[in-house]
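INTERNAL AUDIT FORM
Audit reference: QA-55
Scope: verify that the stored structure record matches its stored sequence.
Auditor: D.O.
Record contents follow.
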Amino acid sequence: MQKNLMQLYKRALDEREVWLPRWKTAMRYTIPTDDTDVATLFDATASDAADNLAASMYSLLTPPESLWINLIRESDLSPDTENATNMLRAHLNDSNFYTTIHQCYLDLVILGTACLFMAENPLGSDSAFSFTAIPMTDIAILPGAVFHTTSLPACDLMERYPTLTLPNHMKETIKNDPQTPIKLVQSLVGTDFVAWVDVGGDFENNIVARGTFETNPYIIFRWSVVSGELYGRSPILRALPDIKTANKVVELVLKNATIAVSGIWQADDDGVINLANINLTPGAIIPKAVGSSGLTPLASGADFDVSQIILRDLRDRIRHSLLADRLGLLSDKEMTATEILARNSDMVRILGATYGRLLHEFIRPLCERGLQILARRGLIEKISLHSDAELKYIAPIAQMAREEMAI
């Protein structure tokens, strides 16, 4: 079992490896964290459009303090679904769900895959639920398996798992520095949970926890998926060529602007001009022989600047890829009912495939996990969405879809 688990873990890491540089590039042009990336980011069109799309998903899929889920009894013998619905909504509202899910929407829009961890709070808390948006760089997945890797200071790890026995080569290091980071791997294969520290040595001795989950606490959902791939593809990844080009165009425009503002100057020089030493930078002083015309620019027949035309076209394509031109705010002019219906129809058509995927990979697992936690606590009767109740999704995008089908 342990050997198979390690093989699955290594296979999951190999499957994720190809996506790490793609995610890094997507984040570099939207939510850069490194100072070097921030200093070389010149165009914020993609970042702004990603924020707008994440906010639109937030209001269309899970609007706070709104009725966006409902449970309908399958028969008269089914448990009380009205009480279950009210209890589920109440505990979601009292939890950190609405502050956390927006982080997942950003990951979804930028990376194409997001992970929401749904844990159970201790008894006596305001809500039975606790949510964490886990970075995708910490998650590796396979069909039916999730591996969550994180690092903890050695002192915190020993406090959490006092029975842990570390290898001898680690004991001296931890004794000298209790803050030494140690990698903790948590795996969920099917319903079996195993956590271990990745410090080498005997795998069996490194296991710190075992257990089973009735429902999966790792809710992983994707924007769109290509056949044969495990991880999703995002609008940012699709628009990446235009995003890179727009950033480069703005960089070149700014460099040209600095030359236009500060100019390039000539000065008399009684020596011989060495062309290899000429540096065409803003504020540069280029020597020239006394009495000569020096280095002169080649005059072109016309001053035709196409940079703004290219940049406008690139920005329009970026906003189009991230649906900013279709999911944005309504214009100031009043819209007729026909125009509103046409706009809603476009939104349903554009987000139809993504909406269906999120309903299956996000909304339904979220409700199943929530109902299971509430039932175990005795707050509601045990309800199965497969036999006892039907999940009715009544968020704004679902209402638009039903209106579209009614037309």
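Auditor finding: record pair retrieved intact. The chain has a mean pLDDT of 85.
Action required: none
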